[in-house]
């Protein structure tokens, strides 16, 4: 991460008084609209315009319709959005904050719409904008912007999901005809899961292994027409509609084969590499693997959108569940929000959602700044937050659905169908297990000798440390460093006892990494938790005074929950004792009481209202008056 | 639980040698068909017949259709099943094993079909069979058996889900007309979530507060026609179709209001209580609450079916995910089953599914034996297993879906749509949070002075104890007893410091219980884990010799995973140390290696094949040959 941000966070942490939450007021006031303003990092007016536009009746959910009708409806919705010209695909490069803000704003309306838009504008259009040059921009971007050529992104193959470098589709340059010939050599090399190709896609960017004059140059990207203007499939292209999924059925996924498809020489995207008419290959980047890295680094924007979607899904579910829980009595007058079991599920999730939202804001800033020194931090954060935010979404939405009882199962209350649709997010745009491995790999590659901090003193939390940001941050950093060192040690030991060749040692290190993949994932989680906590504390420091009390409380609750999740680690290492664990529980429950005080006007309600989900997108009747359902 | 069963389990445990798994063979052979036989507790031939019948094309999934078409399809499927006369509603009382086996066998075909059948036969028909007498049996059961009057179960009200005793629907006896007059006094008293009433239901059992001559007698059950033979809604009945849900859309749920519905005196179900023509109320049970207990105790069968469904859902997901994982390579030739992250998600889940399946078998035996001494054990086990098995199903199916990557999201691969449908099971037929409270309440009510075992010695697991059933059982029992004592202590302390009246002390105890509801749920989970482990060990002992090695390994893996989940507790109490935690990880991984050895012919595959899911119900293409999808 950028050095000044990191040092700022450390400075903030060291300024924290460690006298518990003694200075906190006994009641908490959350100025909802100020908080909403604080949470909206950019493009406020644009976001409001998009959200307001989504009042149009075409965006009202219809869960009665058949799959094919839903797909058609999704296309019509996308057309309606496109017609508003809120943004252009050129913003992908020129004004990425605007681009991201526009697409993010669609999430609460319908995830199928958001993903169909994302495939078209981000994956297809964004790839042409970033990997193409003026010729491609002029030729393709206008018809992306007006949706006259719905776009797709042909990367994944049946046999190669996570292993993109291993794709088998071929592109061979035919000098005589001055074109590339693209082929699917076998069924496993068919492009698989390709959003938008099942019914509507007309143009797509195709990843294929390029060979010129018998020399393999690695994966390159070609623009290919798969349907003509009338919608008929092009000769040489074969498409199989992939049919129903467990959700996201507004998106038409397809499987695509290419049989001697001839692509004009000019239609290879050539920002990094190009082929001259006589078949001379030139590239700004020498090695195949570095070139591949440049080609796929554009996936970051997609990952950020998926992570943001995960956070937004959690926001919506929490808004519905908390607003319902503060008004719904059961067994007499006591409302269900007053039960500690309900609080345990909803309130740490609320704190975590704030933590992830603020971390996403930080990630977006790093991406916009485009400092070369931040490249690694962006890689780590975008991979780790994608995994953490979507795994967390699975849990939070399930908890929220359960916290609403049967009401949470009713489609009208929105959490359920949205969960089904979003379930895809943990494995697409980078499988979460692979994403977390990337985090740990990047940390290991750091090369620096790692100093594992000395073991924190047990009893500190019980002695008032639960409210101390410095104590919490130290524990979180200790966990990350210790677990990372455990993985590194396993790898070093394996290398040391392997035969002397470098290859054998590398293989031994790699095997040790894989043998300890459970630990590797732990390190990734620990890294994200530590980062999100530090960032939350720094953001709180920066926030307007009126917002500090509630942000401090949420940051603290988030930290407490991270420590509770890691309790077995800390206890095992002797960094906590039983009294610390008990103190964490007591501290969390004190926060619950504060957050729930006031029922319908409680801080918990104000904090979900600050997410700014308009009523016409919140929709769920139980979020308003459950008696009037 | 029955004393002889409990003492048998203890005897088995004390016979276990504690020399680790040293005696285990280095490879594991699983005779699939013997294992299947062992797992099929009863009605083997009937189960096979039902499963085979489900080959009929009408049971093939169609995810393209609209909601209303799916409902109609579900009704037609139910008619087809009913036409086979596999069982009669009278079996609910006369041959409950046969009744349960028949309904269980529908789960793998379609959960909507299973639930629509369950509502009709178990909730409606079973209630008439159990709470009615000859008059009702003769009048209603034939048309339940031939489905000429689809049945519903009007218990839950909008305002009263978990609190059934608090329902507000009224039944007042009109002596002059010799009938009961049933009314919905307000919108919150409308019957809510009533399966089968949205479109198809014709007859239903209605729970209402009975008043006779001005005296309230508590909830009683009445048989009410809600639609006539032609399907027209009866006068005085108002029904609102509840529309789409996040799944289970083959079932037509409805909301029902009654406006001065006149029910003939004979149509009150009178097995426990009756009203004479002149309005004299008599009951075999004196207190209103005991009477209510008798009325709702029939819910146990429904809960057992839901718990069994949860176990069956996990079985199907594991069969698909494990069969896919052993053949699917990624990054070269290594199949994904060889990654420890994949093993960690699938193999302990496999062990747990065996544990729950065997525990369900024990529960069914207790229910069939009908010994009064077992009533409490049945209450604890049916409540706790319902919650544990369905919560576990959520996790296992999500993990299996993720372990299949994008393939897990495809409807054709079955896990996804089944997850959506089954998501209802954690909150219906008794919300899981409430179910787990019932377990702990029953344990607390035991009255006996509880001896908390002394703290087990840390280091025992690391010194070879991971393979010792006695060590594991002792740790699990220690956790349950300690956490139960913690709750009991909190309640006693609260009572001691409350003012002297009995009511004040009872209120203080109750408040302390609710303040510690997080612990209360932990106790419930600890109880179920301890029971399932002990039972698994006892079942292994009883099993044919050829099955013992694999059952022993699974039981051990289940125990290990329970200890791992409780690690923070054990470490905090000083009952484990860090070396123990490391030893558990090592032991689990040794089991993984054994279970995965042999790839397509590995024990893991044989163990899921032993669930006996026929190919025509497994369906998922990836469970067969993923390349041919």
UniProtKB/TrEMBL annotation, chains A, B:
Give the Acyl-CoA oxidase C-terminal domain ranges.
491-623
Residue runs in coiled coils: none
Does the record bear Flavoprotein in its keywords? yes
Q: Name one Pfam family in it.
A: Acyl-CoA_dh_M
So which cofactors does this thing need?
A: FAD
Q: Where does FAD bind?
A: 156, 195
One GO location term (cellular component):
peroxisome
Domain named Acyl-CoA oxidase C-alpha1 is located at: 298-444
**Family the UniProt entry places it in:** Belongs to the acyl-CoA oxidase family.
Q: Which protein, by its recorded name, is this? A: Acyl-coenzyme A oxidase
The organism of origin for this protein: Edaphochlamys debaryana
């Amino acid at each position: 991460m950028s050095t000044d941000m990191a040092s700022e966070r450390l400075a903030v942490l060291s300024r924290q008084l460690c006298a518990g939450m003694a200075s906190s007021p006994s009641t908490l006031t959350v100025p909802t609209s100020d908080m909403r303003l604080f949470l909206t990092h950019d493009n406020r007016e644009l976001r409001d315009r998009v959200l307001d536009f989504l009042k149009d009746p075409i965006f009202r959910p219809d869960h009665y319709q058949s799959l094919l009708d839903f797909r058609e409806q999704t296309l019509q919705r996308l057309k309606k959005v496109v017609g508003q010209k809120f943004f252009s695909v050129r913003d992908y490069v020129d004004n990425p904050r605007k681009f991201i803000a526009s697409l993010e704003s669609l999430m609460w309306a319908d995830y199928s719409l958001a993903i169909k838009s994302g495939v078209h504008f981000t994956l297809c259009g964004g790839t042409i904008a970033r990997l193409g040059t003026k010729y491609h921009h002029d030729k393709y971007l206008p018809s992306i912007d007006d949706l006259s050529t719905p776009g797709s992104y042909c990367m994944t193959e049946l046999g190669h999901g996570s292993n993109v470098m291993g794709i088998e589709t071929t592109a061979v340059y035919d000098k005589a005809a001055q074109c590339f010939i693209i082929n699917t050599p076998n069924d496993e090399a068919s492009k698989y899961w390709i959003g938008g190709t099942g019914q509507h896609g007309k143009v797509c960017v195709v990843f294929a292994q390029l060979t010129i004059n018998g020399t393999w140059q690695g994966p390159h990207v070609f623009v290919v027409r798969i349907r003509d203007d009338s919608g008929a499939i092009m000769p040489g292209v074969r498409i199989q509609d992939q049919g129903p999924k467990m959700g996201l059925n507004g998106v038409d996924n397809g499987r695509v084969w290419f049989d001697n498809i001839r692509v004009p020489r000019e239609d290879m995207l050539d920002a990094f590499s190009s082929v001259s008419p006589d078949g001379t290959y030139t590239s700004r980047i020498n090695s195949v693997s570095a070139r591949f890295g440049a080609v796929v680094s554009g996936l970051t924007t997609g990952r950020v959108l998926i992570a943001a979607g995960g956070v937004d899904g959690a926001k919506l579910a929490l808004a519905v569940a908390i607003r319902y829980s503060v008004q719904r009595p059961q067994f007499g007058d006591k409302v269900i929000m007053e039960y500690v079991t309900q609080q345990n599920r909803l309130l740490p999730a609320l704190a975590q959602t704030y933590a992830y939202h603020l971390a996403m804001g930080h990630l977006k800033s790093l991406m916009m700044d485009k400092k070369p020194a931040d490249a690694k931090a962006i890689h780590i954060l975008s991979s780790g937050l994608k995994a953490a935010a979507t795994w967390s979404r699975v849990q939070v939405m399930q908890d929220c659905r359960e916290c609403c009882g049967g009401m949470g199962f009713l489609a009208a209350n929105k959490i359920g169908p949205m969960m089904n649709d979003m379930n895809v997010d943990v494995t697409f745009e980078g499988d979460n297990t692979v994403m977390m491995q990337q985090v740990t790999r990047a940390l290991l590659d750091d090369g620096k000798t790692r100093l594992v901090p000395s073991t924190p003193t047990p009893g500190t939390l019980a002695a008032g440390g639960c409210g101390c940001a410095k104590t919490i941050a130290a524990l979180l950093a200790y966990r990350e460093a210790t677990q990372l060192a455990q993985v590194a040690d396993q790898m070093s030991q394996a290398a040391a006892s392997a035969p002397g060749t470098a290859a054998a040692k590398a293989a031994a290190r790699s095997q040790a990494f894989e043998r300890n993949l459970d630990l590797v994932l732990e390190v990734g989680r620990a890294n994200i938790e530590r980062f999100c906590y530090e960032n939350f504390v720094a953001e709180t420091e920066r926030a307007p005074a009126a917002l500090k009390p509630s942000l401090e409380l949420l940051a603290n609750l988030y930290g407490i929950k991270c420590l509770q999740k890691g309790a077995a680690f800390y206890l095992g290492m002797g960094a906590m004792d039983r009294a610390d664990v008990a103190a964490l529980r007591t501290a969390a429950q004190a926060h619950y009481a504060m957050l729930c005080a006031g029922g319908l006007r409680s801080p918990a309600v104000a904090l979900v209202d600050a997410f700014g989900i308009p009523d016409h997108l919140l929709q769920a009747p139980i979020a308003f008056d459950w008696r009037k359902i």
